Structures are given as C-alpha cells and as structure tokens.
Amino acid sequence: MTQEKRAKYAELFRVKLGLGEGGHAQRQQVIPLIERSRLPQDEINWIWHLADADRDQQLSRDEFCNAMHLVTLRKSGTDLPPELPSELMSDDVKWELTLDQSVNFGEQFRALAGGQHTALSQDAARQHLATYGQPAHYVSRVVELVAPYGQLVNEHQFCMANLLMMRLVGGEPMPGVLPERVRVQLGIVPSPMPTRSGAAPSLPPSAPRTPSV
C-alpha cells in the first residue's frame, strides 16, 4: 500500500467515521462502508476477519486502512489472501523478540527449568511473570495466551510471555488473542480457519504434555 493510499483511507476514517489516530471503529460502522463496494457478503466478512488482526472486534486506523486496501484489491480482480500479508501488519504490533531479549529470556527459562527439563509448569511460569509487578489476573491471562489449553510452558512460549509482560508494563493493552502466525511459532495447535460464512471454529484438542519442573 502506498503512502498516498494510506493517507486517503486515513482521511476516510476521520471524515466518514469521525475518528482520529487513536480511535477504533466498530463493525457496524465499517461494514456499511465496505458494502458500498458490492462485494459478496462472504468476501466482506473475510476482509473484516483479515483486517481485525488483533481480534478485538474493532478496527484501529491502521486496520481500517488495511480493510479498505483489501476492498480496493478485490475490486481490481485480486483474490483475497488466506491471511493478512506481512507488509500490511501494523507497525505498532511488535511480536518479534530482539536478539538480546531472546538470549535473556532463554537464560531465565533454563535457570528455572534446570538442565534436564524442556518445559515449566504453568504455576512456575506464573511465579516468574509475577515479578513484573502486574496484577495476578494479567499474569494468568498471559500464561493462558501462550499456553491456552493448560499444557506446560516451553521455552518459546516462556519468551513470548515475558515479551507480553514487558508490553503491559510499558502501557500497551492486553491482546485478546495472539496472531495466528505467533501461535504457529509457539507450537500452539491452531484452530480451524473460520469459514467465509462466519461459522465459528471448533476448539482444538489438548496439546500433549512433556516433563516439567
């Protein structure tokens, strides 16, 4: 998406929805705008699904721009992608650990787990994450995000949990769910992709357990 197009969509966000840079548009505000494209309803639903990258049932300005860009692409004959292209992912959603973070969190994990273990219990993970000084229910929610089916916490999940805690300490909001690509990176069994008709996916089976501390 060019800067000119992004600016055009951002202006639409401001003028048509009356929202500024930090605003969030609800589905009932956005869908009527997309419906003007006369695209099939299943494609409109899919555009919403793709644009709502953090799955909070509302669109930030960047997400709104992505939605309108997808509409434009589809109207020009381009097929809708199966997932949001990486170049459209919002810059303010930082899911990648720096090298220093990876090394630091990895060392913390191995110190807690010991040399003969490849996973931590969720209780052990919560006790460590509590040192960030955030409320207990935030700590529990972070553990649920990285290990959602009650399984043990491996090193990759532990590192992501620490990154989430750092973001919370920095004032960023708690995400509703992790992006699909992050879930795959963490080895979380993905739920089936929602259908374009909007059918709800079924829950995946529990992940296998590994020895813990």
UniProtKB/TrEMBL annotation:
PANTHER family xrefs: EH DOMAIN (PTHR11216), GH06923P (PTHR11216:SF174)
Keywords, alphabetical: Calcium
Ranges for domain EH: 5-89
GO-annotated biological processes: endocytosis; endosomal transport
Annotated protein name in UniProt: EF-hand domain-containing protein
InterPro entries, A to Z: EF-hand-dom_pair, EF_Hand_1_Ca_BS, EF_hand_dom, EH_dom
GO cellular component assignments: cytoplasm; plasma membrane
CDD domains for the chain: EH
